[in-house]
Amino acid sequence: MRKFKSVDDVVSELRPVDSVYCIRKNSIKTACNWFNKNFPGEVLYAVKTNPHEEVIKEIKNGGIDKFDIASIEEIKIIKKIVPDAECFYMNTIKSREHIREAYFNYNIKNYALDTKDELLKIIEATENAQDLNLFVRISISNEHAEIDLSKKFGALSSEVLGLFRLTKAHSKKVGLSFHVGSQCMHPISYTKGIGEMGNIIKKTNIIPDFINIGGGFPTIYPDLRPQSLNNYIFEIKKALNNLKLEKQPALMCEPGRALVAESGSTIVKVVLRKKQKLYINDGTYGSLFDAGFPNIVFPARMIQNGRIISKKLTAFNFYGPTCDSMDYMKGPFILPNNIKENDYIELGQLGAYGITFRTKFNGFFSDQIFEVEDKAIMSMYEKEDTKKYLVA
């Protein structure tokens, strides 16, 4: 992968016609170091967030060698790059064929479920294996999340007690898990989730071998400024202590966005300006899906590239290059008022899902990917930024 000192250098040297994706390995290293230092348990990287080979390698180099995977293809990606990695098949709905392939071909022992039917499927597909670590995912409120996952996954309170008992009987080790939703904006969600686990433990008198609090750890966007991640860790530790368990289960989490968001940027070019509408060469069918759905406002800056940049700022909407009217990003994206055709814009925080969601709709697709060494536009990990979001 070709390396540049900065995003500005990419534009200055290449003057790209199509959009360009940039990876900051140093950002990944910083985030991995933070979680390894501060999270009181095992850290699993959520592969779906960004499965690029260079990203996975940097995650491994950062000391994280356990992976939350959602499909057989993600298992294949991880085993190719990190052959000795431990994978956790945490999608609660899997085909029998993929369970069988994961167990017999890739030696996957860790599986999540949220129904009796899925449990029976796992047992049958692995031919009554006796070495399975099974996680029962419970449904909890996603009220503080920007993207709600509770409608699709999780065993309901009326079902979970029997399911947990049954799962315990068919596993070598048993775990409880939950997910607070993507981009969780308040650490109290983890407290509530762990509290729900405590109720299950009391009612079943079963102490799980594992407690998996899932992902949801946030990154920072112009309109989404979460508390310091230190506050999230504090709440998690306090909630676990409040369980007052005789034996402390092994704790794990599955961060994705918080590990890699800052590592990615997309460089887009303005194709046309219509007043406060900017038509750009990437969009919701490319790396900017989250800007359209669910309307995440990415940090944006105009790249100077020899131009005089106006000090007057204006709020813009973006439109992508396809013929589909849903290729629209409301923003607002705050940029210099004098921006025009052929100017370049860097959009940050795209290490999370930017690469994952790209399509080739209408033939618009760019696979230009470079490494850059400059800092992200916004950061949860920079000391001066982190202090701003600490709660007294």
The biggest sheet amounts to: 9 strands, mixed
The overall pLDDT, averaged over residues, is 95
What is the count of helical runs? Answer: 12
Could you tell me the number of beta strands? 19
Task: Output the radius of gyration.
Answer: 22 Å
So what's the overall shape? elongated
Low-confidence stretches: 384-392
Q: What is the distance, rounded to the nearest whole angstrom, between the alpha carbons of the first and last residues?
A: 43 Å
Tell me the strand percentage band.
Answer: 15-25%
Query: Structural class of the helix and strand makeup?
Result: alpha/beta
Helical fraction equals 25-40%
Describe the fold and architecture.
With 392 residues, this protein is α/β, with parallel strands linked by helices. The protein has helices at residues 7-14, 25-38, 53-61, 72-81, 96-106, 116-125, 157-169, 188-204, 229-243, 257-260, 289-292, 383-388; strands at residues 3-4, 20-23, 42-46, 66-69, 86-89, 110-113, 133-137, 145-147, 173-177, 182-184, 210-212, 250-253, 264-274, 277-280, 300-303, 313-319, 328-336, 344-347, 369-372. The strands form three sheets. Strands 1, 2, 13, 14, 15, 16, 17, 18 and 19 form a nine-stranded mixed beta sheet that branches. The longest helix is centred in the middle third of the chain and has 17 residues, at 188-204.
